[in-house]
Design brief:
This protein is of the alpha+beta class. The protein contains 3 helices and 13 strands, in the order ααβββββββββββαββ. The longest helix is centred in the N-terminal third of the chain and has 22 residues.
Length: 245
């Protein structure tokens, strides 16, 4: 009986390892078409602190194929702080899986230049990650523009309830930025918003947002991809990108 139990444990351990690797690997077809992994499932390679050259010594955890920002009482960038890609990107197709804990707040930002030298989270266009039911930020902003999958404080996501997986389960986010500055957000395969960077409509939205003080907000030629530390536990995996020409 003891031998049987040990075998079961070994099988589960092996299955878990295979699953973790599967979620952070590219298929042969993806490799052929230019996709690159931004997280290998094991190390912080390719990432660093938004406020320094090294990966944060605390506040982030890599375990079981997941990159997790740890909880710190909901304090924005006061523990490990945001992390950014070493490389900067202009036009791209970015895909990532994320798992929220109850009441969590975080975000995936793009076109982050780090020029603003903020004391809190770095500035950039943000694919909002939020527990819309429990986090108070969902009720702030305008017309729901701080809810899950929105461009934070700018453009609300139009997402059917059927495309949202429950808190604690993995969701798939996607941001596509075309060379002509057309941008699209997706949640679990459903397009939930689109806009044009630098258009009059975009600039009008910036002018009535919290980003008004930042000149040419969201219009940089290229920038880092950022994972936000907003003081709540959120996990990421299978983060991959394809540059568009």
């Amino acid at each position: 009986m003891a031998v049987f139990a040990i075998c079961c444990v070994l099988l589960l351990f092996k299955a878990g390892n295979v699953n973790a690797q599967k979620h952070n690997q590219l298929t042969a077809n993806e490799k052929q078409h230019g996709w690159k992994l931004l997280f290998d499932g094991k190390t912080s390679t390719g990432w660093r602190s938004a406020k320094g050259e090294a990966f944060p010594a605390k506040g982030w955890q890599i375990k079981d194929g997941e990159l997790t920002v740890l909880a710190s009482e909901g304090k924005e960038s006061q523990n490990g702080g945001d992390i950014v890609t070493d490389k900067q990107y202009s036009a791209f197709d970015l895909r990532f899986e994320f798992k929220l804990t109850p009441g969590a707040n975080s975000g995936v930002k793009y076109f982050v230049t780090l020029n603003e030298q903020t004391t809190g989270s770095a500035i950039g266009l943000e694919y909002q990650l939020l527990d819309d039911e429990l986090h108070p930020d969902a009720k702030l902003g305008r017309d729901g523009d701080r809810k899950l999958a929105s461009v934070y404080d700018l453009i609300p996501s139009n997402k059917p309830a059927s495309c949202i997986k429950p808190i604690g389960e993995w969701n798939v986010g996607r941001v596509v930025v075309y060379p002509n500055n057309h941008v699209e957000h997706y949640l679990n395969g459903v397009k939930v918003l689109e806009y044009e960077r630098g258009s009059k409509a975009f600039r009008d939205l910036v002018a009535i947002s919290k980003f008004k003080p930042y000149p040419n907000f969201g219009e940089a030629k290229e920038g880092h991809i950022l994972l936000q530390d907003h003081g709540n536990q959120v996990s990421f995996r299978s983060i991959k990108i394809k540059e568009l020409k």
